[in-house]
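Before a colleague's protein record goes any further, I have to sign it off. What it holds is a sequence and that sequence's fold in token form. My question to you is simply how this chain folds and whether the tokens agree. Thanks in advance; the entry in question is below:
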Amino acid sequence: MTKMRLYFSVMILLFLFTGTAAAQPFADEIRAFKKADSERFPPKNAILFVGSSSFRKWTDVQDYFPGYTIVNRGFGGSTLPDVIRYTNDIIIPYASRQVVIYCGENDLASSDTVTASIVVERFKTLFYLIRNQLPGVPILFVNLKPSPSRQKLWPAMLEANVRIRQFLKQRRRTAYADVYHAMLNSDGTLIPGLFLEDNLHMTAKGYAIWQKIIKPYLLKD
């Protein structure tokens, strides 16, 4: 085993171990997902959206992608460690056609000590956790968006985006959707009307841009 794979194996075991504690962040939401699954399990071969609140609040995501079957498992204000913790609950069981990830923005906002490098390493941990258990499933990463309330984090977001893109270019069955630049005018300012009053979550106009960027990467039969 290479040092890199050993590192990721240790990281994965660490996150899975911490996930066994009785009270974990977002545990109620995960239980709600599992309850819904027990009542009506999502269809196999669907496209799984997983990550933070930018997906969670996209409650009508299915309407944006007619002809595709979407399962939305965005939850809370999750960070990459949260998604890693619950991978065996809300990613692995679904036998998805494709996994679409939006996460990492909250990592940077959570602490001044979380850098772009840390976000990239966390993403790699999640990537390998999925790839090791679902080796044939394509993975699409939607890059970190330029939230107005987090403008001071834009340089770190851009760095993380670039480095994750470089990482994915070297892996098979991966794709990278650049929503960041699609949400900006040619002069680098934000397109008006994309965000709600909290300057963090998006309006329908913002999601329409995401739909345009993401759709070409989604897989059909």
